[in-house]
Design brief:
alpha+beta, 37% helix
Length: 111
């Protein structure tokens, strides 16, 4: 569904939980969120730019639960660094701790 920002008058497509415009705060809904999407401007294999979503990559690689959670936490750290973090998140510490926790589970599983 198309919406128009009341501040900048830009039109945007709103996904559930997505940050629709830089003026609109992202909402935590449990659904798809803008901090889990990224535009790949220059694909290394060539071709046109495309939107990648964290969950699509997790499913395509058939990641185990612990690997997927570590990957999602790393994704959020990178998104936060680019100014697209999870609402209310102002530090990478929490996700860094999740990466360590799930990393330890991966190591234990592989022993």
């Amino acid at each position: 569904m198309n919406y128009q920002c009341g501040i900048c008058d830009e039109f945007y497509w709103d996904m559930v939980g997505a940050k629709a415009c830089e003026h609109e705060p992202a909402k935590l809904t449990g659904g798809s969120s803008s901090y889990y999407t990224v535009c790949v401007e220059k694909p290394t294999s060539g071709g046109e730019p495309y939107m990648a979503e964290c969950n699509d990559i997790i499913e395509a690689l058939r990641m185990e639960y612990d690997v997927a959670n570590a990957f999602k936490a790393a994704w959020r750290v990178a998104a936060l660094r680019q100014g697209h973090g999870k609402p209310g998140q102002d530090s990478a510490r929490y996700d860094g701790e999740k990466i360590v926790f799930f990393g330890q589970r991966i190591v234990e599983r592989e022993k």
